[in-house]
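Re: duplicated header lines in exported structure tokens

Our pipeline writes sequence and tokens for each protein into one text file. With two proteins the header for the second block appears twice in some exports. Here is an export where it did not happen, for reference. First protein block:
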Amino acid sequence: MRHQLPLLMLGGALSCGAGSIASAPLPSGGHHVLFIGNSLTYVNDLPATLEQLARTAHDTIRVRMVALPNFALIDHVNGGSNAVDAIRSERWDYVVLQQGPSAQQVSRDTRVLATQRFDPYIHAAGAKSAQFMTWPASDRITAFDSVYASTQAAARAVGGIIFPVGRAWVAAWTVDPTLAAVNGHELAVPATSVRVLQQAAQDTARGEQRGEQ
């Protein structure tokens, strides 16, 4: 059934050739997921983790990505990338929208606006809009609640859902403080971070982090 993405996917991101969309269509079958974002999507190269978790769950996820450095969602939807064409190119199950923390009000407002402008294309492609919650920079490490509020506002604006990766990191740190910490704008992802992805998936699957709540 469409929109029942396997648990393993809900905390993850993909990296593969930033900003590029292959002309050949994705193979049929599996769950088709498009990521739109910036370096927080493509720098931490997680395709191998994603594929491994998919195989573990005996499921298939087929992915594409449009991600460019320092891009906000408004840059994508205004034509700075081929994100809209990418949405139109396939039937998708989910389109995952990611930008930086967006903890400031102006960033939150533009995130909501861009999400609303993307939504007609997402619905036309048969997909569900999904917000990827990131994390604050190291100099604003206490701003996780503001980051979540921004993510939630964008999800609520279109009846979408949230992939609460930032909150999963907080939960993981309470259990294991030795996990990699936020380092400036980026995040190091060691092998142990699979636990963080799994936690985000479980939280979302239980319906605790849905944007409509």
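Second protein block, exported in the same file:
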Amino acid sequence: MMSEEAKSENKQQDELRALKEKIAILQQTSGNKTLDFNYKNLGISNILGQIVSDSVIITDITGTILFVNNAAEKRLQAKSVNLRGEKVFEFFPYHSSATRKNIFATILDKKQSVHWEDELNGHWYDNIAYLFNNDKGEPKAILELSRDITKHKHIEDEYKNLVEYSLQPLIIYQNKRIVYANHRVTTLLNCSIDDVYGVDSLDELLEYIHPEDRKRVSDIAWKHIERVTVPHRFELRMFRKDSKMIWLEVYTSFIDFRNRSAIQVSLIDITDRKLADEAFRESEERFKIASILASDSIYEINLRNNQAKVYSTSKDSELGTLQTEIMSLEHLDRLIHPDDRARFVEAKKRLHTKGEPFEEEYRLLFDNNKIVHLYGRAHLLRDENGEPYKEIGVTSDITSVKQAREVLLRERNLFLNGPLAALRWNNTGLWPIEYASQNIDQFGYKPEEFTSGTVPLSKLIHNYDLEEVASTIKKRTSSGVSYFDH
């Protein structure tokens, strides 16, 4: 069952929707959003008086009150008979009254509705004001709708307090602009909070995104704005204010903020992880190339009699035990590791039925329980009728690559969780640090303290040792040596 609170919220939404529809009808009947504002003749007092939850105030263009409903009487703490003919500004505190005067001036100058929030007698209100013209297009009256959002404001303040001290950078995106960002965002992007709020359009935001990621991010952003279901996690490259590129993992979710729909964006800096992964891939590729050069084996399978021949080019390879044998295809397939057999068979099926090139990694399981990792590629030879009669393939023993990868993973984990931390610094000035590994926190620092320029390398060295270190660096670099111990 729906709670009383939910029923009340739905009722408010229905009332506001009905009011907007009635205002739209009034505007349409007057032609091109003009209105001869005789609210008594039009019966507008009866229409607006039925609105219970929203405060309705109608004034002339000087701010003189023409009409208020019951909710407005409670808000202004005065009866309608005492309000009519008075200036609306007199019923608000000085700062709020000054804001309202500026809003009236803006409405009359730009001739468009204005939306704002203000506080009165301990209550917060979400306001929107419309300008009505007579049939000559002259400004005639201003209608102000206000909704009590005190409860929402308290929830919002609690939410702000929560996210402001979050360890994670958080942004709230609403009406195609950033309306809130916590201090972690400024640290991440190396900018001020004014820089963040200064991004007031999607196009301006995209300028900070890596060119190769802009279209994808733009598509995702527009789908979010239109509330179309899209992945709520993605990665992108972004440029900080100092032009340094960083990798971000982005999580998005729909929320209500200031009583309207918004998108919450959580950011995680994954630059270190991306750099480590890239270095790992390059290292793995080098190992793989070296392994392939050292242990390629060539095989051929006669598809008419299912006989296979294997010619190993490496005597040290485990495949060397097969190099002089001629065996059935069934026997060769039985060597495929059980966990890889289904994938292996499916790939071979595509090769034989569709002619798709075979390229797979799989394992062989020998009688002595030794496992060999292989990288295989194969193509078909066809006869004069176009029928396949032989499969020619090359297998590479990549066991050492897999073992090396495991070693690299262990070493990487040991380093990231070990007592040694890595710093990369620039040999200029006070030796600014460009990179600090995540495990630098074991020494009481955070990586961003170094990469933000707050703590250069020179601050880590005792004053008594600075001259000696500087001298050693100068001598080493001048002689072409890029490292030294101290």
